[in-house]
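ESCALATION

Customer reports they have been waiting on this structure for their group meeting. Please prioritize. Original submission:
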Amino acid sequence: MPRPPNDQVSATRRSLHLAAEHLLAATRKRATGEITLVPAAGGVQTPVLPDGRVVATIGDELVVRGPEGERRARLTTLAGAADQVGIEPGFPWSKHPPGTDYAADAALTVDPAVAGQLADWFLLGQAALEALSAEVPGEDPSAPAIFPEHFDLGIAAGGVNYGFSPGDETWAAPYVYVGPHEAPPADPFWNAPFGAYRTWHQVATAEDALDFFREARRVLAQR
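Update from on-call: job pushed to the front of the queue and completed.
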């Protein structure tokens, strides 16, 4: 499938990042004190909350599913969508601020087709990270999770971060990355200040991502 232009990806990614922090993670934090999210078919969602609800972004919609049924609203603004589905917007931070500023009535721009490709990117990442975790059980891999402040899916294992980003202000195209906690050895493999990355133009499958992770581990083993 052809990848959309970076400007379209960036616009949708910024809006979904706002929704992830100020609608999804905000609801989970109020309910449980936790903030991480998980990939979902077509989008991103909370784990099941104590009251049985799941709050998700699917395409260009905010969705709340629970024992009482399902409610949906277009992602036009944070406050507007939240009001239509009956949740409270705005990340309730105390010590650490969220990664994005809360603007209740600022317009959100979500292209459903782009949102679908970003959702597929996270699902590809989930499969790759689960496979990597199965290969390195002795390195105490963490469970894959989407961290809303950065809006990326990642794990840590053996002093290394592995993950999938939908893009950011430095690299507009979504990318898969490896970030050693300690400075990596001198090698052209490392093409970023934090370690190494490959964009979704270079990585089409979970096996492609696994090959990238394995190569990173091979290079790290040489230090």
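Sent to customer with the following note: The mean pLDDT is 96.
Escalation resolved.
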